[in-house]
Amino acid sequence: MKHSLVLLAVPCLLAAAAPAYAQLSVSNAWIRYLLPSVPAGGYMTLHNDSESDAILTGASSPDCGTLMLHKSEDKSGTEMMVKVDSIKVPAHGEVKFEQGGYHLMCMKPNMKLDERVPVTLKFKDGTALLLTMPVYGPAGPSGQ
Q1: CA geometry: angle 25, 31, 34, nearest 5 deg
Q2: CB 69 within 8 A of CB 97
Q3: Which ranges form a coiled coil (predicted)?
Q4: Closest Cα partner for 58 from 30, 83, 85, 38?
Q5: Cβ atoms 68, 107 nearer than 8 A
Q6: Distance of CA 35 to the CA centre of its chain
Q7: CB of 132 within 8 A of CB of 89?
Q8: Burial class (CB in 10 A: 0-12, 13-18, 19+), 108
Q9: Residue 10: predicted pLDDT
Q10: CB neighbours (10 Å) of residue 136?
Q11: Mean pLDDT of 25-39
Q12: In whole angstroms, what is the distance from residue 134 CA to residue 112 CA?
């Protein structure tokens, strides 16, 4: 399921780059929410149908105290979550944000099950991709 997206180019900064990023889309977006005291995880597939790579550099949401780009990694048999500064979405490619890999980490979540949370994805060229992500419990969309 693809979600409605709005693309905003920062006026007068990098307007020439906006058409390439207009070819970004998101599918299967959702947030895994447990409790307000437990970080929530954001998952999706980010598609890039443009001729150039897109560099995701951050994310924000009014429903998160902080929203960060994270990646789960196995370090000597111990799974760890580490903050990443950027994620490359290759031209004509996609990046999956999923449990055990890249994900959005929402610290101090302020949300409820079954609501939709606004999220802004920020890119290196100054553009932003706005979307809404449905909130599910531990089982995710399939458990609803």
Answers
A1: 175
A2: no
A3: none
A4: 85
A5: yes
A6: 20
A7: no
A8: middle
A9: 38
A10: 19
A11: 95
A12: 10
- Domains delineated in the chain: 6-10+24-135 (2.60.40.1890)
CB atoms inside a 10 Å sphere around CB 41: 22
Q: How far apart are CA 71 and CA 87, in angstroms?
A: 10
H or E element in which residue 19 lies:
helix 18-21
Res 77: pLDDT: 79
Look up residue 64 and give its two tokens.
């998160």
- CB crowding 11-30: b at 16 or more within 10 Å, else e: eeeeeebbebbebbbbeebb
pLDDT 10s digits, 47-91? 999 999 999 999 999 999 999 999 998 777 788 889 999 999 999
In the DSSP assignment, the letter for residue 138 is T
pLDDT one-digit tens code per residue, 80-112 = 889 999 999 999 999 999 999 999 999 999 999
pLDDT above 70: residue 32:
yes
- Please state the separation of Cα 94 from the chain's center in Å: 12
* Dihedral pair phi/psi, residue 20, rounded to 5°: -65, -45
